[in-house]
Amino acid sequence: MEKENEFVLMKSRSSQACIREGYQLFTSGFRQIFRKTWPLAAVFAIISATASALPVLVSPTLLLPGMLLGLIAVVLLLIATSKRLHKLQIMQSTGPIKAKTWMRYLGMVMLIWIVCLFVVSILVMFTCLPTIIMMAANWESQIGMLNGDPSGLPEYVRWMTIIVFLLAGFIQAYVWLTILGPTYLMRGSIAQRDKEKKEFNKIKNEEKAIIYRP
């Protein structure tokens, strides 16, 4: 994502190009991104593990608050990571883009976000498998205890559950960060298209002024 990288930010791209080159950009610069963002990923892992542990280790009635906490953690991770990468100049800035410009390219924005979320959902589903197994084991034990049966889980399972939640959360942090590549190039593409449109309109207005000049 550096300036000398083969991926140029300010370039007019199609939606497909933003997605394809965005993922290539993220994977090619993953080592650098990891070195600069692992503390943020660790914080996300703690919050994510807390969100998963609330309905499993505390009470099943906390499932909805846990899901909301997990969603907030994702949003904060994306915002904080994006700002950090811009601050470190790993990602270039396009400057502010007006709301009407975003609306003009709403179809492009929606298509890229839908594809990115679809990819993330598949990757999260795979990385969540250990978490789901631990959740099922703990819930089955709790249901048995409610029916008067003794807990069939050893004491260390609680700590194992927490460790699994933390590891899964850390991995999922970088799954969510894959969104940054396509959206980064999408923003650059929209900014470049808007710039080209303004330059075209300026030239067109100048030509009109010459033609109608008395």
Please give the oligomerization state of what you see.
single chain
Give the strand tally.
Answer: 0
Structural class: mainly alpha
Alpha-carbon Rg, integer: 23 Å
Portion of residues within helices = over 70%
Q: Provide the succession of SSEs.
A: HHHHHHHH
Mean pLDDT: 81
Number of helices: 8
Overall geometry comes to elongated
Low-confidence stretches: 2-6
What portion of residues belong to β-strands?
Answer: under 5%
Question: Could you give a short account of the major beta sheet?
Answer: none
Span between termini:
51 Å
Task: Write a brief structural summary.
The protein is mainly α and 214 residues long. The protein is built from eight helices and no strands. The longest helix is centred in the last third of the chain and has 32 residues, at 180-211.
